Amino acid sequence: GYDRTGNLTHSTDQRTGTTQFEYDKLGRITQAGNELFAFDPAHNILDIPTEKVKPYPTPSPAGEGRGEGKTAAPLSDNRSIIPDNRLKTYNGTTYYYDELGNLIHRELADGEVQNYFYDLHDQLVKAEIFKKDGTKETWSYTYDALGRRIGKGRLKNEEVSETSFPHDLGGNDLENHTRFVWDGSHLLQEIHPDGRYTYIYTDPDSYEPLAQVRDWTTEDGESRQQTHYFHCDQIGIPREMTDKDGNLLWFGNYTGWGRLKEETKVTDAAYQPFRLQNQYADRETGLHYNFFRYYEPDAGRFVNQDPIGLMGGENLYWFAPNVQIWVDFLGLAKGAANPVVKAAIEVGKRAHKNYSLTLGGGYNFESSFRTKSGKLYRFDAIDYKNCLVRELKPDTKSGRCKGNKQLNNYVRILNSEGPDSCKGKWKGILDLYKP
Fold this sequence. Notes:
By secondary structure, the chain is mainly beta. 11% of the residues lie in helices and 37% in strands.
């Protein structure tokens, strides 16, 4: 079921029962089943206690478990705004970044440690994984000229990485080597040492998978082929796989931010790598490859900043308010999967396009302002002569709430750090359009 704004309020599954969802006034998810979430004003997820947290564990017999056994963060009292939007701790995991804002070190709640290395285009090319049992794995990732990932594999010999990593590694240097073939921005095939998987989507413009064609060769040299079908939920996440006769092969259950919490393989032949739309799960790291960036499903964030900057949103690590109605096909900017939300977005786009005609001259539109601390703000309209800053929002309860909150913040910042001619004189005006 959905509320009037298009947010999913509950879903019912014959295996897991009914899951309830709750949201704040900005549409950010605050509860998914027994998972609880809170955010700072810049949409960073917070590692804070909440009264609804229960000490019981969430079972995860075969998921991509990074910190199972917790329903929410083990929770500090740190309620401060996160500097530079770089998350430091969440749910027992600690994060470290380089000067460019790329996540380079992650200490997981279960004791595993991961190091990440990037090329000059901020693409992840190497991951060092130190297991809690003392073993180490090093994984290589390669890309084509368009930024599409075309290969990954685990190094056979750790010493290789010191001399030839990553670009001149050949297949002989890697085990579990997987190659990827693309049709534009759609993953068409992945080629493994033991076979090939070809993917078919619901339509050419969709990233929701419909079918998987598996080709392999038996020990006797015979060529075999099987077709498996995906059964996806309202957001395009595969929940089940069946064969051509409808027999169940695989089913899975997910957390509130799209991590596979548990899965069941009815047959060993079942292989399901997809998560949110156009996200491919790397089980070695727990990250999801999302075309231009990698997504961390434990905290619902990307591991580095948005390549398109503020065009993708004010928080360069943010995925979306929730993953129940929002998608991001390329790791650049969120979009709505729900038709109600899609229609509302189109109305909003038209309203913003006509905004300049409505207000007339004297205003700068979509104007950016950088504070002394380096934080960027983007105003819908600002008049530096008359000391006016305006925000355009839909005439809804959440739209008015968000608009007034933004305007109060804009006025505070401009009175403090804006032009001297308007110090203490700024006035915020909220303009509304019919959604």
